[in-house]
């Protein structure tokens, strides 16, 4: 991504639903098996629910059994940025949209091949575009 979307918190709060704001701006997590995309099987592109940037292709989605949409790779490496997260007494790698900085979820090293990664993403942080 070549540019970063910069808005005030008041602008983001006005544009996003309260639930999306809590997850994407405040780093929240939706309950497992509650999001609209955890078992969704459509073909297309998953975009950032805050700015529309393309994040994941449906061909990289898999059922991890965790209750959140899971992907083994982003649509492009530059679509995401990682940030160390030491909350809850553990070390995880938070995944953010590189254009907006939205909290999307976390990435773990227990996914399928060919990457061995599991991008565990909140449904509310995504919008789906059908092919």
TrEMBL record:
Residues 9-131 form the MsrB domain. Gene3D superfamilies: Peptide methionine sulfoxide reductase. The keyword Zinc applies. It catalyses: L-methionyl-[protein] + [thioredoxin]-disulfide + H2O = L-methionyl-(R)-S-oxide-[protein] + [thioredoxin]-dithiol. The active site is at residue 120. Its cofactor is Zn(2+). It is an enzyme of class 1 (oxidoreductase). One of its GO terms (cellular component) is cytoplasm. Keywords: Metal-binding, Oxidoreductase, Zinc. Pfam families: SelR (PF01641). It comes from the Bacteria. The keyword Oxidoreductase applies. Its EC number is 1.8.4.12. One of its GO terms (biological process) is response to oxidative stress. GO terms for molecular function: metal ion binding; peptide-methionine (R)-S-oxide reductase activity. Belongs to the MsrB Met sulfoxide reductase family. PANTHER family: METHIONINE SULFOXIDE REDUCTASE, METHIONINE-R-SULFOXIDE REDUCTASE B1. This is Peptide methionine sulfoxide reductase MsrB. It comes from Caldichromatium japonicum. The gene is msrB.
């Amino acid at each position: 991504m070549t540019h970063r979307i910069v808005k005030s918190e008041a602008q983001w709060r006005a544009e996003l639903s309260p639930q999306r704001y809590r997850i994407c701006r405040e780093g929240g997590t939706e309950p497992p098996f509650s999001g609209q995309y955890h078992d969704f099987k459509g073909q297309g592109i998953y975009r950032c629910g805050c700015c529309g940037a393309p994040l994941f292709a449906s061909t990289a989605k898999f059922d991890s059994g965790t209750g959140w949409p899971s992907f083994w790779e982003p649509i492009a490496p530059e679509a995401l940025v990682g940030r160390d997260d030491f909350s809850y007494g553990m070390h995880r790698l938070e995944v953010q949209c590189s254009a907006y900085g939205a909290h999307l979820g976390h990435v773990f090293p227990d996914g399928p091949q060919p990457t061995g990664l599991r991008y565990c993403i909140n449904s509310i942080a995504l919008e789906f575009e059908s092919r």
